[in-house]
Fold:
Amino acid sequence: MPIVVNLDVMLAKRKMRLNELAAAVGITPQNMSILKTGRAKAIRFSTLNAICRILQCQPADILEYREEEGK
Amino acid sequence: MTPDDPSGSNDPLAKIRKVSFVFRILCAVWLVVVILLGMNLVWFGVKGFTAGEGSAGTDSTSGYPAEVYVQNDAGRFEPGLGIQEVKVGKVTTFSVGGPQFFVGVPGNWKAELLSSFLSLAFVAVGLMILYRLFRLYERGEIFGAVTVRCYRWIAIWLLSGWAVSNLLQLFKGVAAGQPIQMHFSLDEMFFGGVLLWLVSWIMDEGRKVQEEQALTV
Structure:
């Protein structure tokens, strides 16, 4: 998928663990892991809103559009 | 089974796993029986090819002329798979007409033998698909992509059985000197196959929707 999730970069910058972020956002660690590993098919605005608020960042810091090779 | 529940008594799929295990074993046992019957047919085939001509007569079970080549020295077969003992005068042989939906060519025991091989192969394929399906249920994969593919294979199995049985009926008529009549009966195998294909398609679409929802964070 062309949308790449750079959550681990922001987590490292804020020195926060995935489980802590999941608890703060209000979703399960499994779902947060799905998002981090790029397996998510969609993300709710409410979830994105909570992540940006907790990590003090912009959506563009977490989500990146990367053209697929060969296209 | 979980660390808090090592016995697995709170496993919601426990009943499904147990029943699936039983049916998987039944499929395996029946598959072994079919393979043994197939090996017995091979034995008859070899005997038939090496025994030479026998006395011609009428196959009393199917009503069309049969050439008796093979002397029956073996034990009885299980009924239901279409292999029956036939006495023609003093000679005993086997009528290898196969299950209801596979009809051999009259007057030709080799074609009958081939027809029975086809029948047994058909049953064996169905049993293998069912074995796989019950193994998936045992693993808890009830609505997964592989399970849906199994349903699709069963639908293909039913539809191919319907097609082949109707074609063999046509060939039987042609071999008996009848005019070619294209008569395909839409029986339970056809409708079963179509319905199962439809069900598998619906399940696949539902699975995609559910996966999409499960992967929405």
About this structure: The first helix of chain A runs from residue 7 to 14. Chain A has a mean pLDDT of 90.
